[in-house]
Amino acid sequence: MTNYAAFYVGRGENAEWIGTVRGDGVPGGLAAAEAGHQPLDATSETAYRAAVAAFLRVWEQWVDHAYVPDESDPNDYSELADLAYAFDDGQVWTRRTLTDPWEPAHGASTSSPVSDRTTADTDATLPSVQRGDPVPGGVTVVAVESVGPGSVDGCWDCGRAFTRGEVVVRVCEVAAPEERYVLHRHCVGLRYLDRPRYVPVREHAQTFARVGRAVDALAELSVPGGEFETLIDELADSFGVLRALVEV
Length: 248
Known about the structure:
Strand order of the largest sheet: 3-2-1-4-5-6
Shape: flat
Strand content: 15-25%
Distance between the termini: 19 Å
Number of domains: 3
Helix content: 25-40%
Largest sheet: 6 strands, mixed
Number of strands: 10
Number of helices: 5
Structural class: alpha+beta
């Protein structure tokens, strides 16, 4: 599980740092990136810089903690990352740790966080998604399918239009199955990378209130006994519900 990943142009002492992201599942996020946000597929420095910039914007929007060179920020985020990517000698390279050698990164983007009807998920950092599976945000997968001709749908999360033939994920709200939406595959992947952001607000508030009531009741007890054990069980149960909300 990677905490930081840095992006460079060039390798070695003269490498130029152009950005860093922080969060779990960075390789999975890269694998989920759509065309235009996919640094690993770049074949020129210009394309790589543009793809990294786009990926950093998406990461900041959905996960937060994307950093770029900034004269007003004294922190050097380039030195925090073991995992690194660099464009050099006409291709993208990756380094898993500070002491590992650089290896070509070609082919690393072929896996996806969502399985379609014929392709199995090969990315271990993100769960496979199939019909009937829950997705963070209180929704369930209805179908994974290709966009047909004449589609006017836009992604529920990012708002961007779909292209003909693109594989998308149709979902419905658990509490209102008749309410259905469509998501890009990479947007589904981003939901798994940042589960807490998509916990339904009402359920989140109710669960925290339940935890708070158990804590307050325990604080008022002066002598351990049967009631104490009951409240401990209630506190454990409420924390379990909270965990389930975050880890759906």
